[in-house]
Amino acid sequence: MEATQANTQPPSGPCTPVESMREKMLRLCSRHWIEFLLVFVAVTFTVKRMWFMDDAFIYMRYVDNWVLHGLGLTYNAGEFVEGYTSPLWTLLLSFFRVLGAGYWYLILSIAIASTLLFSFLAIKVNDAFYEGDRVRINFPLAYLCANYGMNKCFSSALESPLVLVCAAGMALYTVRPKSRLALVLTALAPMVRHELILALIPVGFYVWHRDRKFPRLLTLLTASPLVAWLCFRVYYYADFFPNTFHLKDTKSFGRGLAYLSDASSTYLLPFVLFLFAYLMIQTGYKKKLPERLVMLLSAATLAAYVVRVGGDYNHFRLLSTPFILATFACGGILEALLDGHVGRLRTPLAVTLLVGVIGFIGRIDISKENGLFGDVERYWMWEPELKQHKIRLRDRQAQSFGKGPQEKVFVHGRCFLG
Question: Are 318 and 156 spatial neighbours (Cβ–Cβ below 8 Å)?
Fold first, then answer.
């Protein structure tokens, strides 16, 4: 009798969690397998288009003078001028330089890590727009994963990867303000580039209006590092603004509009936005419409500032945040459209469409003047082959950029540092 009761008892506890975890993983893969492939494509293109921009050597010299030479956070010894744009990027590079990291592999690692984090945030934003049980298509991630401007921004050794990640975090905070990761990334955006606060303000006001509660934590996390850095700037550099502010405090609307046209028309962004707006109107799909409009408003606000200052000499870079917010606003629309019209052909049709988008966008390579409709004239962009020039960045001594006042770094015959 006792043996019978022992045999009829339910299985022990440890088996159930294992089975439920397995089912959860299978369900996750069945919903997101297309997005996982898009993440692989994004990482591949990022590594393939890895590069350093010449302005990155400004950051490197500031960091190495501080960390390696003990000359303070200066470009030249004894000259206290804040000649870098991003405080957070400067601190991040300094942290890894203290640990002995070399610049080439450091920037490559940051590029890959930021691509993965950006893709994760893109998946989360798309999930917020589409909550169905069917496989996710995620047009925004497909549209951006092979985008030349995006891939270049993930490396370049500038603050651009932080800008991209913070922009994705800002989009996620708009649709899911309870996300702690999104909150932190949104709050840190002005420390990456100060003008990103222009995109943050509409988001903050919308969350305040929607929740009927002032976003105190967002305000605190945003203001605290900014105020702390301002105090440091006044004490250390004796100025209220960085030197880069005085350099860019100009008005050049004509050049700015040309820059906006160059960045948007290269990847057909106006056509994409018009197409998805048309699809929403025709299908009556209004899922999270206010959040989409706030993203577009934030993108327009920051884009207006970029137009005012005349854009940038580097293709796409200053418009990366507006580009991301505008693209993310299209999330979930394609899934909803295919759900109601194609039935069993949904997945094959979606895969075919995404392959076409990746192939269409991925062939654009501005460095080779290869546009959608043939050779086009673009803004100047310099791509030194850092692995080939005579100063090897893997050498710690070379990374210090100068032991004396006469030492210079030459890349392809051009002097970047003196």
Answer: no
Greater model confidence, 384 or 80: 80
> What is the per-residue pLDDT for 385?
34
**Could you tell me if 138 and 332 are in contact, meaning their C-beta atoms sit under 8 angstroms apart?**
no
**All residues at 6 or more sequence positions from 195 whose CB lies less than 8 Å from its CB, including other chains:** 302, 305
SS3 at position 155: coil
Contacting residues for 358 by C-beta, under 8 A, at least 6 apart: 41, 142, 145, 146
Assign 186 a pLDDT band (cuts: 50, 70, 90). very high
Report the chain's terminal Cα–Cα distance, integer Å.
91
| Tokens found for residue 288 | 């999270």
DSSP helix/strand/coil, 409: strand
Angle between the N-to-C axes of helices 320-328 and 289-308, in degrees from 0 to 180, rounded to the nearest 10: 160
DSSP for 76-116, written as a single string: BTTB-----S-HHHHHHHHHHHHTT--HHHHHHHHHHHHHH
* Residue 404 CB-half CA count within 13 A: 2
| Rounded Cα–Cα distance for residues 326 and 324 (Å) | 5
In whole angstroms, what is the distance from residue 186 CA to residue 68 CA?
32
d(CA 195, CA 193): 6
Q: What is the pTM assigned to this prediction?
A: 0.82
Helix ranges, 238-342 (H): 243-248, 253-266, 269-283, 289-308, 320-328, 333-339
Q: What residues contact 198, with CB distance under 8 A and at least 6 apart?
A: 301, 302, 305
Residue with tokens 């710690």: 396
